[in-house]
Amino acid sequence: MNHDTSACTFPALTADFLRHSDSLIDNIFADLWKQVGMKTLLERCGFHKRSGTPVNAVLYCLTMWVWLKSSSVSLFARDSLSTFCAAGKDVLYEALNREDWNWRALHLRVARKALQQVVAPGSVTAFVLDDTIKIRSGKKMPGISSHFDHTTGRHVMGQQVLTLGLSCTEGFAPIDSELFTGKTKVVDLPTPFKDGRSIAATRHRAAVNQTKPEMARAMIARAQRAGINAPYLLADAWFGTKPMIAMADDALLTPIVRMKKNTMKYRHSLHLPDKVVCTEMDVCALYQSAVRGQWEKIPGQPYQSKTVVVDLNLNDPKDEVARWIKVRLLFVRGVSTSDKAQPGKHDWCVFLTTDVNLDPQKMLELYAMRWAIEVYFKESKQHLGFLQEQARHYACYVASIHLTAIRFCFTVIARQQHGASGVAQMRQNIVGNITQIDFAARLWGCFRGLLARALDELAPMLGDKVNMVMQTMDLHVQRFFVQALQLDPHQLRQETA
After folding, report:
1. Helical (H) or strand (E) element with 174
2. Closest CA to 382 of 10, 107, 171, 66
3. Domain range for 434
4. Alpha-carbon gap, residue 14 to 446, rounded angstroms
5. SS3 of 478, please?
6. Does 279 share its domain with 306?
7. How many CA atoms lie within 13 A of 81 on its CB side?
8. Which residue positions in the chain have pLDDT lower than 70?
9. Can you tell me the distance from the alpha carbon of 277 to that of 340, in angstroms, rounded to the nearest whole number?
10. Regarding beta strands 145-149 and 125-135, do their DSSP bridges make them parallel or antiparallel, or are they unpaired?
């Protein structure tokens, strides 16, 4: 008989609890961990430890601690870690601070498994690019710098994270993330990296030296090499720049980008009977000359639109060689459903794409898929531990952004398998399931105390057998929790078979 997986006998109350539909042995997170094949992925990505708690157990705890509603790794280690792992707080922080672990590679592999569950054959897909800011302050937190927060309209100190995801009609999965360090009020490293050639040191140099288009180019290239492809790139107005459009064009992607009403010049060609008149003008001038008063209703949408095909020089006007491409500008304004309020003269926006044949309705439908990344950012900050680890090592921040994405990918996979209505509902299911497990482990400690008192009263009759009874019960309970939470060696061997 295999004692690692054999059932053990519990008191009636405990047995009834474990037979419940949400019992520990059916732990959602543990099942996900096995189905994704995390142990194999960790080995392939080079996650190794020489001694102590196995790396699989450490990463298991680091991934799931946020679902126990702990505000930090430290509080999780104090209150609940013993339920899931024999390691202490120092082991978890040591793992987060490892400079040689390739979190990006692990994230990419998990994202690919999530997309296999989400993307249906023939589904329209698009890369989505956006950034978000985690407001933080501290003179000893490396990588902190000043960033302009467009949601509040002011500069804040914090960490900015550029994220690339893939969106489709069935869902969204984050593919890659990169920390971006601004140029002002930068907090330097308190101590140099142990190895300047390590992964963490390389990521820090990229955060300090690279521009966002360079980061985006590298992230898209990595995704394409991993077999993750999409024909479109979606981004909001903060990415509506010539370098970003050129990057998408170089990657053979069709960008659909919302543009600012700035001074960027477009060349508009007016075809007259005997000549062609070319005029360079910004988007506001184009609106006045080619759009105003010429709105057309979009079928099936509460919007009016007007498209204009123009030329855009992707190079700087000061460069000797120009790089002109044709782009389609889509001007859009809402249609008022009330007779008392009509759209104002400034109530319009403009989108750009390099596909001059893309019709307005399709263009807006594709751009609407970008909203999925905003949902991801909200979930990450509120529920998935986005940069919540209390540490001062830059490697910990790199680990945090990828662990957050991995947790989201887990909820995406679970949503597909359990038929939840959305990612938020699936996350709540996981939270409830894991919290129940943690409570059950603590409840057993209470039961053990009651049983110990009862056996003490029987000590005159049982003698030394009292200790043997307690040790046997502890052994069986420990085996059960290892099987349900930690993934015992027998199950891990079956997973890699």
Report:
1. strand 171-180
2. 66
3. 12-96+421-496
4. 12
5. helix
6. yes
7. 22
8. 1-27, 68-88, 335-346, 418-453, 455, 474-497
9. 41
10. unpaired
